[in-house]
Give the backbone structure.
Amino acid sequence: MNILGISCYYHDAAAALVQDGTLVAAAEEERFNRKKHDPGFPKLAIDYCLAEGGITREQIDHVVFYEKPFVKFDRILNMYTFTWPHSMVSFLKAIPLWLKDRLWMRTDIQKSLEMPDKEILFAEHHMSHAASAFLVSPYEKAAILTLDGVGEWTTTGRGYGDGNQIHLEEQISFPHSIGLLYSAITSYLGFRVNDAEWKVMGLAPYGEPKYVDQFAELVDMKPDGSFRLNMKYFAHHWSSKRMFNRRFERLFGRPQRLPESELEDFHRDIAHSGQKIVERIIVNLARATHEKYGLDDLCIAGGVGLNSVANWRILKETPFKRVWIQPAAGDSGGAVGAAFFVWNTLLGNPRTYEMRHAYLGPEYSNDECEAVLKARNIPYEKHDRDALVKESAKHVADSKVIGWYQGRMEFGPRALGSRSIIANPMNPEMKDIINAKVKFREKFRPFAPAVLLERAHEFFEMDEGLELPYMLMVPKVRAEVRDKIPAVTHEDGTGRVQTVTRRDNALYYDMIEEFGKHSGVPVVVNTSFNVRGEPIVNTPENALNCFLKTGMDVLVLGNCIVDKSRIEGDLV
Amino acid sequence: MPEYKSKFMRRWMAIVRPIGVFQTYLIMTVVYVLIVPFFSLKRIVDPLRLRLRGDTYWEPRKKQEDLTLERYYKPF
């Protein structure tokens, strides 16, 4: 049976294909059409999923959309009605769009799929998130938290999963939302909402908790984990543009930072204090959830689940023994959850699939990679597997910045060794080099370490054998090795770890191991293969273009290695 | 579509599209200014939970008994 999950029309549109209970393909539309966070119908991602599954449209048994549009419309109508007259501008913008398109979503999806008679299923937004976390997790029974901006009405949900059933029992409703609070902080700091929340998390370690009291004024928390926002300070319940109002700015004593203007200590302190308050809410929520359900395992999804600092604190500071977070925790993962919700929960099939990696996107053969280089007259060297591993590790050791393009593309916002830029973590200059010459982004942005699973505990304060394959946790770097891996040690002495196993990505594992043999450090810098403002590369052409227009030194494209110093000037 | 018809359609759309957009905003403004306020008078029900108080902010979710495909074909 083939089930196609779709998430779109808000941000990060995606498609996923589940065949007989196995996730065979999942991808975000932005990777194909090159529009970052594209919200439109994921036609190209669907085409890819069907091709990967070896089926045609006619062979799809069920199509499921990740939320219920009429329930969302109900929330939007209430929002405009009960915040009258503040909401006028937003009303005039949104309502025609809903009346013209969104309310006819079923027809729109049928038309876009070119299947006018196909019935479309609609799962709830937070049920899709919950399913994307629990139904593909390793746990038979676990507590579930969905932490998001907003779905239909729900912003936060909790419950538990048991077998193939999900019991989401309680919710916190719009406008009270951790995700929207974080977006307000992002916007106040002059960064783009639904895009640059990472920057707040990256900036936070550089600041001091000077504004925690002011942030505490914005939120009321209860011992049972629930919370509400003090809506006197916010505007997201009546405006589609503004997240906060003047009172919010007066509380912190300064107006919103202009985008691209200089970042001052004040902004670093706001990021730090805001991050702290969000961690406090999340840890309180997780602790209370453990108290309520008494289960050892926790599953998390929803965009806030990408807050890796808070995730680590859940694991360390609450009684939960294990935490599993969907790597595409944001809305794109909703496509996966919706499809599994239909397969397991609605159709009653037992759970047989465990999501052990995120390599669910397109793959291009070595021949296809070579053809791209040939077509552009790019000089390259072709290697067998062993030589490729050795050469790549040697380039890392020589402090070259490498575009690493191998295997199936990752699903979710993180590059995990398929579409990655890798480098030497021992070089103290490396962070500045990559930020300035390759990624063209702010100096403070940190980089993550990819480390062999067996050796991770030697470098990071984590238990031996603890798998963190998705860069969703931030343990401390051990004090005695911090000077060995300065490029991946954050300002506060932590690192957003990716543990690598041969089982999940053999070539990547072998390359890191080879680098470790010579350096004694089986760790590499791993950051996404893209430049600021662009989606992560998908095709070999994308990779070559990105390589040529940035300061990367070497491109490992399939089994070919391109050394930029050997390329004639006019090709670069 | 023949060339002359397609040309005509393009010109026709260039004229009527701005009129359509203008009308949409005009109608929506009238709806917002004259009709929406009547509904907002019911603020006592507080659907946005702006006056939320009490020992907890959790709301129980309606238990979904009807876990069937038919139920989920509905977009509400």
The two ends of chain A are 48 Å apart (CA to CA). Chain A touches chain B through 54 residues (CB under 8 Å). Chain A has three domains: 1-66+84-122+331-354, 172-325, 366-571. Chain A has a mean pLDDT of 95.
